[in-house]
Design a protein that fits this description.
This protein has 410 residues and is of the alpha/beta class. 42% of the residues lie in helices and 16% in strands. It folds into two domains: 35-152 and 295-379, 3-Layer(aba) Sandwich (Rossmann fold); 155-289 and 389-403, Response regulator (Rossmann fold). The chain has helices at residues 2-26, 51-71, 91-103, 114-126, 138-141, 154-168, 186-202, 222-225, 241-253, 271-277, 301-311, 319-342, 349-355; strands at 35-44, 78-86, 109-111, 131-133, 147-149, 178-183, 211-214, 234-238, 261-264, 286-289, 384-391, 394-397, 402-403. Strands 6, 7, 8, 9, 10, 11, 12 and 13 form an eight-stranded mixed β-sheet that branches. Strand 8, helix 9 (241-253) and strand 9 (261-264) form a beta-alpha-beta unit. Helix 2 (51-71) crosses helix 11 and helix 2 (51-71) packs across helix 12. The longest helix is centred in the N-terminal third of the chain and has 25 residues, at 2-26.
Amino acid sequence: MRKKTLTVLSGLMCLVLVATLLGACTSTAEEPGTKAPLKIGMSTPSTGVAAEKGAPMGHANVDCIKYVNEELGGVDGHEVEALWLDNGYDASKAVTIVNRFVDEDCLLFTVASSGMMTAMMGIANENELSGFAAFSSPNLTQPPQHIYGQTPDYGDDWAAFAKYYLDNIWKGTGKPKMALHLLDNSTGAGARMAAEAGAEDMGIELRDEWIFEHPATTSSETTSLTTLPDDIDVLYISSTPAPTAIVIKSAVELGMYPGMTIACGHAGFTSALVELAGADIVEGVYGVYPTVGWDDDVPAMAKMTEYCQKYHPDDYGNMDYIISWAQSLITAEILRLAVENAGADNLTPQVVEAQGLKKLKNFDVGGLHGPVSYTPGDNRLSKSVRVFRIDDGVLEPITGWVESPFISYE
């Protein structure tokens, strides 16, 4: 009996040994999801005064990472582990969040807004943690350090619309008179920098007394608008959707619009603007935005629409969802390039920036916006926008892609 027991145990030990050896021999061919995760940080203003913009952006980030992990097998078999945190459009929260990204060894991070990235970028640059903002302003990328803009910045928006206006809308003589209404942070400052640098050369009259700032919590801008001359031609707004809606409604109340031309930078130009102001109020308003619309037939549209309608159907039609879906695709591509060029075991934030982000070259986000490339000295990753107009409550593109040349503010 003892001999039989020893024989059985010996057989079991052999099986264990064989299984161990087989496991060792096959460890380099792991199934997707069995390798160590790649940790990233993500932050959006999903509550607070910019929630109408931040909530769909956060949804898209999470939905797309889910798609990358569950349908694409992650990045070379590594799950993308997203530490997503709501900053509430609060600079102090943003600082706490970026410190957490550093402390928890995130390889890179993304944010929705230039305002929150402005609060975070000092700590990120100091720790050489690269990050990129869906919505950018020149102060983030000039001088170039470790912070990048996913798309053209708010100054590029102004320049693109100003050129379109002069070429296609302005029919008067002399110089058109332009006023600016700007959110009192980097969202407004970026547009102001471009306008003050370029208006005179473009043949646009812009005076200091026609430039206004408003807080994100503004409830009326009739007082500021009444100081404008009766013959103002253009009102350009660079803000988020809720205050943009207030500025436009104030212009309507004063009888200024329809009459002058109103245009918006991409931070405020989305379906949320139509919902907040009312379709009749914003009829004919122009805007600049760096993505396609929901009706455009591009390769990534079907999968993105599938996830949006399955998990966050209320976001369907909101172009802010599109830009954040693209943001997550770019994040996955940066990680893929870093793994390919340096090996997963060697990844640090510095390696991911050098061997991933800076290796981006004409990456196609499924047609959702322009191709993504790193260009030394120009930390904008995509460099093209389109001009839209609101017709019957729908944001309709009226131009093809407009390239945004680099504007130096240094």
